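Quick start: read one record
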Amino acid sequence: MVTIIRNAAVYQPEYAGKKDVMILGDKIAAVGENLTAEFNGAVSVTEIDGTGQILIPGLIDSHEHIMGGGGEGGFSTRTPEASLTDLTMNGVTTVVGCIGTDGITRDMAALLAKAHGLEEEGITTYVYTGSYQVPVHTLTGSVMKDIMLLDKVIGAGEIAISDHRSSQPSFEEFTRIVSDVRVGGMLSGKAGIVNIHLGDSSRLMDLIWRTVKETEIPYSQFLPTHVNRNEALFQSCIEFAKEGGVIDFTGNEDIDYWETICDEVRVCRGIGRLLEAGASENSFTISSDGQGSLPVFNSKGEYQGIGMGKASCLLKEIRECVNREGLPLETALRGITANPARILKLSKKGHILPGYDGDLCLLTEKGLELKTVIAKGRVMVQDGKAVVKGTFE
């Protein structure tokens, strides 16, 4: 497969000007002007006109419940698995799957099977071993073994702290998990990241802070998520990011609703505040918590039912960063491209450069609406419609 995208405004995610991008097989072969491909007719070349469009790296969703989540309101509230088009129709070409509250009826065997299925259908997948619970529920019986011997496992998570649904791990239990994940990552050349679910408790990030202050484990071993859950938690997370850590914002499809019932921090404003406080533009990621369950309340605070996170929130948050907060597009894009690629050690993801994976999205210049998605060199979405669907879609 040879594809050339012509005359698009290329964000690598840094703005590189109007360029052509050539994809050969599943890799980006060249980025430049007036690119040509001569194969003496032996290979067909597909050309896509990118005039008036923005070309960005394919999105990396670092926290998605790909085999469903929820169940906290009873069995009927279990959310469905993610389909291929749930991801590609929202620009996601790389996804990291995780298990949430329910580590009993959803286990590592099922998570890995789902990840392999999505990979067969055309996107790149990884997973975290474990769930909310401590001790960590693994496939091999060991966190280190899972990371070292299972190719798709790049870390552990989402381990829950400061939450009534967590296992209330002790400091010693927590640091043992983090140290095992770190060493497993070192020995296998993987990120060895611990994805931490942060709850509403006033203890905030206490276990993370104690670990980086009282042990030799560095800030870079953590990716705390849901950092914008409330104002007090976000303040602590800003300090963590200023000291060299990376924090993960959870995107939201309907933040206007949530702002009326709690003090959740709007993602675009949170990123703006983070940068204003002096944290690096490399200090944040944005993930969807897709397929995760969300309790829904009325204006009186009365429980109404269960909603569900969606991958569509990622591009929505990018639009808000640009249009509402006035952030540069290339800065906002880092949260779903270069930054997760770096912290998760996905060395061929997150940039539009020769040798990188052929994962790309075309957006309209006006409105930043998704038009085309290419995953591993294959066109998955064209003119806003799925041209490749999952097996049972």
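Residues 219 and 245 are 5 Å apart (CA to CA).
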